[in-house]
Every structure is written in C-alpha cells, then in structure tokens.
Write a structure and sequence with these properties.
By secondary structure, this protein is of the alpha+beta class. It has a single domain, classed as Dna Ligase, domain 1 (2-Layer Sandwich). About 25% of the residues lie in helices and about 40% in strands. The chain is built from 2 helices and 7 strands, in the order E-E-H-E-E-E-E-E-H. Strands 2-1-4-5-6-7-3 form a 7-stranded antiparallel beta sheet, with helices on one face. The two termini are about 20 Å apart.
C-alpha cells in the first residue's frame, strides 16, 4: 500500500509508521456518522491518495479539519488533518 499526500505544490509519500497511524485514524472517523454534500467553492488544503493492489481511495482535507471522500462525497470532522498537513510541510 502506498499513501501520497499532495498540496501547496508539495508531495509527500508516507513511511510505514505514518501509513499505519493514518489508516487507524481513517478507520475511526469512517465509523462515525458522516454528512453528505459539496463543500463551498474552496480549494482543498491537500489530497490524500491511497493506492493498494487493484484499488485506489482518494480524500481531500479542507480547513485543516474537514475530510471529504471524493468517491462518495461524504464529509467528516477530521482533526488529524492538522498532523497530516504537518507531515506534508515538514
């Protein structure tokens, strides 16, 4: 599995520990109730692309704390987005 974070003209591929932490946080947030809908006309802070064997998941982070799954248009509060952006800009 490969995880790529892109935003602000930067790209960062997560190492094994970061992938494990992000996967746990995504599992937690996806087990909670989501909201459907399109966000206002804002550019995402970053995009997260998870590539597996024969599948791909794509997410966007807005305002550092809102996670949107692009395929289903579901939206969650995602305060772990602050750490994801730190990984991208460090």
């Amino acid at each position: 599995m490969e995880v790529l974070i892109e935003g602000g003209g930067r790209k960062h591929t997560l190492d094994e520990d970061q992938r494990w932490i992000l996967a746990g946080e995504l599992a937690k947030v996806k087990s909670t109730r989501s909201t459907h809908g399109v966000l206002p006309k804002l550019a995402p802070d970053c995009t997260i692309k998870i590539h597996g064997s024969g599948w791909t998941e794509s997410y966007e982070i807005y305002a550092r704390s809102i996670l949107r799954e692009t395929s289903s248009n579901e939206v969650w509060q995602f305060y772990f987005g602050l750490i994801v952006l730190e990984w991208l800009y460090s």
